[in-house]
Fold this sequence. Notes:
This protein has eleven helices and 43 strands. By secondary structure, the protein is of the alpha+beta class. The two termini are 39 Å apart. The model is unreliable at 1-30 and 34-41 (pLDDT under 50).
Amino acid sequence: MTKKLLCLLKATLVLSVFSLCLVNCGGKDEPDPGPNGGGNTTEIKVTLPSSVDVVKGEDCKIEGENTLQTSDLVYLIEGGTITSCAVTEADAAHFAFRLPADFKGGNYRFDVKRGDRRVQFGTITINMVERKIEILPGTTIYGVVESAEGPIAGVVVSDGVETVQTDDNGVYQLKSEKESGYVFISVPGGYECALDGVFPDHYRTLVSAKDVPENQSFTLKKVDQSNYKVLFLGDMHLADRAKGGTASNMDNTQFKGVAKDINNYVQSNGGSKIYAITLGDMTWDLYWYVRNFDLSDYKEFFNEQVKGLPVYHTIGNHDNDMNAIGQFKAKNPFAVTIAPPYYSFNIGDVHYVVLDNIDCSKYVGGGDSNRDNQVAGKIYSPQFSWLAKDLSYVDKSTPVIITMHVPVYSDSKPGEFSARTYSPEVLAAVEGYNVHFVTGHTHRNYNALPGNKGVGNVYEHNVGAICSDWWWSGAVTPGCLMAPDGTPAGYAVWDITGKDFKYTYKCAGKDENFQFRSYDLNEISFSSSDVEGLNSTMAAIFAAKIADYTGQKKNEVLLNVWNYNTRWTITVTTADGKALDVRHVSAYDPLHIAANVLKRWKGSPTSEPIGSTTKDHHFFKVTAPDADTDLIITVKDEFGRTYTENMQRPKAFGTDAYKIEIK
């Protein structure tokens, strides 16, 4: 655990009775007496709870054994600021003190001043509330959810195990064991919560012992969410690797360009409400330690770069602490710094669920090797019981969008999919709901739809990574940052109106009409001599990648339609209108081979470099009549949006011809 993460952890406060003594130190400089006071001349007894609710405009009243006097003063200390409060009531069973009119609630050190001496008693959290809540037996977390218009009824509140709703007065009371260490609200449709930069304030870490009731209230803002956009941001793997001299154009540097594109998109759509959800692996746990770039650094950096929209977060396998022992400690840095590992919220008429399918229960510590004990894809307990409670509040006519890091399905060949080992359990948990899964992890783009071979009655959208191939192609070939399947760096964009939505993939540096690339295979030629010195195993792998690009003049054209699904149509005609046969194929993207593999494999003769080109299934081939025939390529998505290229052939191939600059 880094020092920065440790500083974020909040200590548990317990209900205690302090019996402390003033000390005759001489002078009137009010020295800090330290945590135990000192001396034995005058005994003061105060029952100090860990937290107390104070109605705005009223005195703070504390019940319990007491020897304070109305001539004493209470000092509330936060940082270097001391707030002096007069004691207004005092007897053997209680005392009260007056707070300034502009007093802000928070966590304060509590001192008592009598005469010219001062004694430190401990720490107290003071919650400034509009009204007192009569706490029911067994309640350990309670509060009010409200907006400027008044209390909000029916808001779902949870600690990740128990789930309740606010009453007509916006009040919730939760009988929690506080095992998770936090409480969150499922932000209701038509409302937004406050932001810490772009991070929503939809949850709170708990501060009191598990049997001590504590107030955790939320204030929301009412907004119109009848129409809005959601950006889904795939794996980022921000680690500040350039700090160690790996490359001057590595992760954080290139991310600034993608962030600029996101900001440009938000600004150019200023009339729309826009939200974002990450899909996990925002960081890289190895580099929490190797580069001292952890989740707190990520949050600070992300807030510096991305502006103007709330960004919810999904945990990925690399967002768990690789040095931890057990599930709780592996996820605690994320829970303290970013968000609960799993939770829900609503935007407009759509219910969103964020799940954590990275099981770290077998973590035993030991650094990078600890990840061998990780089960990526498994939804660990108690998520299914929580999910059942959460969905019980959701009408089955309501669309449900579920994000998690590891996909539900694997794509095996064009149009065919298979459920992963742990997928049947999550599919059973959402049966009967209209569900779209949005996932990351693979650094590729693919879409599984109901009716596709191997797919149940759900949708899955696996979104290409922001970092593409772990930032490598953009580092070695500037302007050609793309994933191993050839998908350019970018993010998914969903347009949502009521319960209806359209989705697409936006490439950074291009508008939303850029949906495919075409390659004139007559102009592409790779050979084994392009990467010399490979051992026999690596030479065979490289030969498979370039098999279709060894200089044969077959008049073939290859299309990479990265966000394709089986409801899209692709037509190719010659300039005089002759339709050509379009074949759905699996292929290695030749531009990624040129931008990444040819440059990076030269320095790695015995192993395949990370992010090497993969064979994927969103490719199409046509055979032109000859080498010079121009083609008209038309790609139409399921929503009727049409994307066209008038391809002039021969079409030159090269990284300069295809590069993208973000302006």
